[in-house]
Structure formats: structure tokens, C-alpha cells
User: Fold this.
Amino acid sequence: MISLADLQRRIDANELSPDAAIAQSVEAVDAQDKTIGAFVCRAEDPRVANSGPLRGIAVGIKDIIETSELPTEMGSSIYRGFRPRADAPVVMMLKRAGATIAGKTTTTAFAFVDPTATLNPRNHGHTPGGSSSGSAAAVAAGMIPLALGTQTGGSVIRPAAFCGVAAIKPSFRMLPTVGVKCYSWTLDTVGLFAAGVKDLAHGLSAITSRPELMPDAAIAAPRIGVVTQDFAGAPEPAGGEALRIATLAAERAGATVRELALPDIVAEAWRIHPTLQEYEAHHALAWEYRTHRDAIPPLLRARLDETTGLLPADYDAARRVANRARKALAQLFDDVDVLLTFSAPGAAPKGLASTGDPRFNRLWTLMGVPCVNVPAYVADGGLPVGVQVIARFGNDAGALEAARFVEEALARL
Amino acid sequence: MISLADLQRRIDANELSPDAAIAQSVEAVDAQDKTIGAFVCRAEDPRVANSGPLRGIAVGIKDIIETSELPTEMGSSIYRGFRPRADAPVVMMLKRAGATIAGKTTTTAFAFVDPTATLNPRNHGHTPGGSSSGSAAAVAAGMIPLALGTQTGGSVIRPAAFCGVAAIKPSFRMLPTVGVKCYSWTLDTVGLFAAGVKDLAHGLSAITSRPELMPDAAIAAPRIGVVTQDFAGAPEPAGGEALRIATLAAERAGATVRELALPDIVAEAWRIHPTLQEYEAHHALAWEYRTHRDAIPPLLRARLDETTGLLPADYDAARRVANRARKALAQLFDDVDVLLTFSAPGAAPKGLASTGDPRFNRLWTLMGVPCVNVPAYVADGGLPVGVQVIARFGNDAGALEAARFVEEALARL
Assistant:
């Protein structure tokens, strides 16, 4: 994989020009994307900036994020050839930091669960996960050092785990969702994929102009609360093993680790996530559903069909639960710095029929808290399995620091 | 003006067909819009539904709200001829309720303060206010019974006050802002204009499928807290007179009325509103500002130029103040049902150079609470002056009921 932080260091030291760095990514995409299929379209003559912290960094943009210079097709024939007028704010943030938009990456239709044709670079017989399939795969395959995805249930953390890359779903609205095709305005969150946690920190800091996100040289040993989310069912053996190994590594590296039970209201929030998501999806996709129903792929169409009866009262009740759960969750962080849990039930499922299960992700999206995927171990078939590090709302720096601690602890195990 | 509730009653009773109701509006627009200039474009052959609570209701849509069948130009040459692919969710909500989209109404560029050429139907020498200029004017002139606007500072309540129509800025996100050109994602709120408060209630209830918003036959006398927002400066004499008259009317009609001081943190929230608004606007309009700066009109361009230095830390501090103020404000509603305050400093300013001052509105947009404009009296020159009735977040039904109480009390005065 291409390390963003490493590229930056070499560019800063004039060991590598921004043009050469971009040319490397272009070549890597040329070489690999015929097999992997991570890109929907690519910039024909990518512009290279000579200033900005992300000069020389080629970025893939999930194809539900609007771009003025490349089509934005939402993974759906309904938007074939659609050309937005403007770049989404988050794309402008990248450009302002000097990044080069390399192309648009594959997405499941409207970021739901109908799979794309993208392969998992670690094992071509398995899904890369979704909905940010192309972004995870392009970083995992070493094509580009940075990619944007979005998460409404588990669409950033899950594909990152399946592809063995680092990823952050930042605090809700740290990255604006304006110009990003909406599925659920309460849940949709823009996130980043990169080779390692340090790369995420450098990328997020540059995009947001937030120096506090840059990693310190020294990492404090965090107080970790391990949560197993029993309300979401048991993990597969590989998922359990990833959490066991990560916990062991963190403990050996000096972290304080203890198991934590989540309050009942938080479990209740996990249960109502679909109500909130689908009620808003019926509004967000009303035009598509009413005027192009037959062009909506089967899994999304079925979900919308099943949930047409949701009422404002159901939605209001779900929002009240979410608000109470956010308060209860915040109190847990008085005693621990971060939570540690599964990124997915196990390794990437076989075949391309499913993008996997977001049941261990959706709660954290609803809570709006920052989550970082850290690859924890490699299961049979070369398939990576990840864990997620979760911090208090707004403490993205803390989530990244603790994730780097876990990542380094795993490397030393 | 055309009363929505009255049209509904006549259509329900088969005294009027939906087609005839729409034809009336089309004729009224034909007759008046050459003078007023409330519409940017009109539906050539407006579709009339035969079912739904809003069948026969012609609606004007502010031209920053995306429509699939009419251009959406954002009040700016940058978007000349822009054709969105989809209808915004709130447009689909209208269509699902049976409403007919009559056309797109004028908006200041990107809903900021550079004026449109729309005239105030009450006095052509005065501004109709902004940024939802066309929506307020079209309802005031009796062209249409319902129009959509948006408010980030005071863009719904202020033009409603200046044009002498009822309007509601509902609780934040009651109406989705997806597909609405963003200025500030924390503030932008979709609202409605109609002839009277009952018409607003019928309209909002039908759009949202929320029966609890429909007016009851009996109205309880509310406990009213009168707030003068001294931190925002003194009103003009006409604004003060409107509040005095509305207070007197409410008291005579049996309401419990007392003056209330707002907590210091709420005043502080008023002060930081521009920080929050402009920090987000720099992101929301980054593409326009960076690639089409010269085409941005002078007042907006100057505001963006002045605020380029805002930092994430300024923004975070502003958000913390807003959160604390929301909690403090919620406590006030333990003792009163609604607040009553100025809708604008006074009557509509003379000429078209300014859309007026949102200083008595912006706090309530930031607080996310429902606000209803009620025309309170007519000043010299036939210029209406309004007051706003404000309820707790989520209590839109209570805001509408108390506003109807004040409206009826004023009629009996």
C-alpha cells in the first residue's frame, strides 16, 4: 500500500516531486484496476498542485460525492452520465489542501447493499465490502494513498476491515455531507481510507485544517473499554479472534483494558437504527422511488417496499431513543478513553453476492462518534479482520491516537 | 390572499374542482406577476392531482430548492439554466400530498442578502424582504395559497412580516433540506408561507403527514413570555408597536402574559450565529467562491471575503455556545408555552437596496425552534408589521396553536 505520511515526507524533503507521486498512482491504477474494478471513471489529465499539505496525493472519491469535472453516477443507472454543476464541499477541501482527484470509486447503488463488481484485493474470490467498495479496494491494492467513502450503517469501517486498510468515520459532520447523495441525513458520514492510522491522521488534519489531529511523537497508553455488542449477536470465530488479539496486544503494550457493558438505552438505539435510516431514505430517495422504481436494484427496492409504512411517530420515537442513548454513551467515556469492538462479524464473505453485515457498525454511526478501523490479524485465505477503536463525540484526535497505539501494539505482538 | 384551508374546504365539498382551483392561481399569477416579479419561471402545463389533501393547491418553490421539471438557478448567474436530475425531498412531499408545483420563486443569490427585483405587493416602493422574496410576495399578492422558503438568518419570518402573510419556520429538520442549496447546514431550515396561521397548519400537516399539526376547533389560551432581545438592539417604533399591540390583544383574549429575560448564554448564542453561519458558508459555497468569485454578487462576496480567516477552533467554540444555549432555552419553556417577540425591527425598508435586517430572527434559527409570523398591524404606507410566536423545539403544533390564538385576538381587537 502507499503510505500518505511517507509520501508527504518524501515530497517535503524534495526526494519526490508531486508530479512523480501522482504519476506513480496513475501507473498503479493502470496496472491493477482492470482486475480489481475499483474505479468508475478516472481524471484524464489529473491536475497536480505544487503547494498544500496534500500535494502529490492522489485521491479516489466515492461516486455518490458530487464532482464538477467527473460524472457522479451514484452506482445507479438512474444517474448515468449525471454531471453536477459544483464540487461537493469535501472535494473542495481536498483540492484546497493540494490533493489531486484521481477518479471516482465504485459504490453500491445509493450506498445501500446491492453489490458492485469490485474485487477484494486480498482475495479476489471475496467481496471488498460496501458500500464504499471502490475506495477501500483502491487503497488496499496500493493504487492510491487516500480515498473518501461514506457510512450510514457500516459502509466505511466494514470495507476497510475486509480489505485490511485503516479507515476513519469521523465525528458526525466533521466532514460536510453537502453535495453527497443522501440516504439518511441523520446518519450519513463522510470518512477516509488510507494505508495506516498515521496516514489517516495526516489526511484528516490536512483536509480539515485541524492541526490537533496530527499525530504526536509519543502515544499515551489509553484506557480501553472492550464492548462485545451482544445485542447485535455473536461474531464469527474470526471476528472474535481479532478482538482477542487486539485486546491482548494493547494490554501487553501497557493499556488499561476492561470489559464494559453498554447501557440498555444504547442497545435500544442499535435496534431503532433501521427505523431512522429507512424513514429518512424514503424521503431522500423519494424521487428515485416514485419515478424510477424499476431501475432501483433489488435489495434496496425490497427494503424500501418493506418500509413504506413507517410513520412520523415511529421516526420521532426513534429519534428520542437516539438522543437518550447519545447522552448515556457520553457518560461511559468518563471512565475510559476509547472503546474497542468488532469492525465486522468476521472476514469478508465469499463471493460478490453480499457486501457483508453492518450489525457491529450501525450503532456507532447513529451515535455520531469517531470510529477507526485497525487491521488486527489475517485469517485463512489471506483475509484481513479488523477491530474498531471508538472515542467520544468530537474526540477524533483521541480515536486516532488510541488506534495508532493498538496498531503499533499489534505490530509488536 | 387565497386561503389554503378555505380552498381545501371547497374542494372537499365539491364546490370547486382541483383543476378550477389551479386555474384560478394561474390566472392570478398571469395578472399580477408582471408587476410583482415573484416568479423566476413557471410550470408550462401544471399537473393537477385528483387526490391528496393538497389537490388543487398551487405552490411556489423558492429557486434554491431543486426541481426535476423546472430549472433551479439559486438566484445566481453561476447556475443559469441548471437542471437538477431529481426533485428535492420536500418537493416530493408536496407532490405526494397532491399539490401542484406552480413555478419557482425568486431568491436572493444563494439565499444571502443581495436583493432581487421582486416588489412588495403591499407597497411597490418597498422591499418584500428576503431571501425568500418571491415566495412571500406571491402569497401576499394572492397569486398562490402556499409557497416554500428557507431561513438561515431570517429569510422566512422577515419577508413574511414585510409582506403581511403568515409563515412558519418549523423545528430544525422537520422538513428535509436535502436538495436545497446549502448555505449553512446547521442553520438552513425550510419553511412555509400562507395567508393565515390555519392555512400554515393545514399545509404543514399535509406535507409531513402529521395529523397532530391540524388545528383543533378550540384554542387554549397560552402562557406567553414576551422577549425583547435587547442584545439585538432596539426595534424601530413600528416594530415596538406591533409587539405592544399583539401583547395587548393576547392579554385581552385571556392569555397569561409576562416579560421574560433570556439567559446570558442565549444572548451569547445570538452573537456567535454569524461565526457559525459564515464558517459553514465558506465550505458550502467553496466551489462557487473559488471558481466563480466574480459572479458572486457584491454583498455576499464581501461577507465571504471578510470571513475567510475563520478557523475550526472559532467554529467549535461557536457550536459549544449554541449547544449550551439550546439547553438553557429549553428550560424557559417549563414556565411558558410560547415566546412572543419582533419578527423584524420594523416595516419593510424603502426601496429595493436592502432586504431588511434579520437581527431579531437569527437567534431562533440557531436554536432550531419553531417560529410563526403573525401580521400584527399596518403601519404608514400600508406596510404590515409582524410578531413572531416561538415554541419549544419539536412543539410545532403548539407554536401554530398559539399563533392562531394571537391572530384571532388581533382580529378581535
